[in-house]
Amino acid sequence: MSMTETQTPEVEAPLAPLYRLEGVTRTYQQKGRVVKALAGVDLEIAAGEFVTIQGPTGGGKSTLLQLLGALDRPSAGAVHLGEIDVATASNAELGRIRAREIGFVFQGFNLIPTLTAAENVDMALEPLGLSKTERGERVAEALAHVGLADRTDHKPGELSGGQQQRVAIARAIVKRPRVLLADEPTGNLDESMRDEILALLQGLNAEGLTLIVVTHDSAVARRATRRLRLDKGTVRDITR
Ligand code: ADP
Ligand code: MG
């Protein structure tokens, strides 16, 4: 359609936030005392961002990631993820979101040692109700995407740390999630493997995947599009 003088030019709508957190607190009971892991967090994250979360141990990073992953609910406040509020959604709805929309990557890889790389990745597709053929295709595609097309039948013990983390990333992306959440994904890796994983994550972000990564590693944070610091349950933007 051609633009004429009578038409108002189309203004690009601002990106709808993927996450919108409002006044989020999370308290825990510890030996009869109340610990405030998150103390009033307001935060928006748009689709396509690469956000890192740094900060001291005990600052609330893992607590925040669990809320973003719909693994936990806030004590007060709202955690909007797309159309749902993690605070009030049913358990079934949170389960559906975790299975389809969110990929998780952990410091310790969390692979099942008795299963091959392909079988570990395939497990993430179990809840999606796909045909066996489509599952096979998706698993092969995900492992190729992380550069492990030639390691599909290897078990975790037969792979390097970097390769194991690649399998874990393939398991996270095979469901085609809206966001990938990672808690210290390079924490158990030496420097060269860290750089490999970092390049892989950056490539996924360049393809449009939203990344939220908890890290102590400033080399990881330097690649982010936005850097947050979480200390005493409070978030601060430290992007320069
Ligand atoms: P980080 O990941 O930044 O190290 P956490 O989110 O794990 O921080 O912890 C934040 C605070 O909440 C800490 O004081 C921690 O002891 C407390 N905490 C975290 N999880 C629990 C829990 N399940 N039960 C009780 N206290 C917890
Ligand atoms: Mg932690």
From TrEMBL:
<dbReference type="InterPro" id="IPR003593">
    <property type="entry name" value="AAA+_ATPase"/>
</dbReference>
<keyword id="KW-0813">Transport</keyword>
<dbReference type="InterPro" id="IPR017911">
    <property type="entry name" value="MacB-like_ATP-bd"/>
</dbReference>
<protein>
    <submittedName>
        <fullName>ABC transporter ATP-binding protein</fullName>
    </submittedName>
</protein>
<dbReference type="GO" id="GO:0005524">
    <property type="term" value="F:ATP binding"/>
</dbReference>
<dbReference type="InterPro" id="IPR003439">
    <property type="entry name" value="ABC_transporter-like_ATP-bd"/>
</dbReference>
<keyword id="KW-0067">ATP-binding</keyword>
<feature type="domain" description="ABC transporter">
    <location>
        <begin position="19"/>
        <end position="238"/>
    </location>
</feature>
<dbReference type="InterPro" id="IPR027417">
    <property type="entry name" value="P-loop_NTPase"/>
</dbReference>
<dbReference type="InterPro" id="IPR017871">
    <property type="entry name" value="ABC_transporter-like_CS"/>
</dbReference>
<dbReference type="InterPro" id="IPR015854">
    <property type="entry name" value="ABC_transpr_LolD-like"/>
</dbReference>
<dbReference type="Pfam" id="PF00005">
    <property type="entry name" value="ABC_tran"/>
</dbReference>
<keyword id="KW-0547">Nucleotide-binding</keyword>
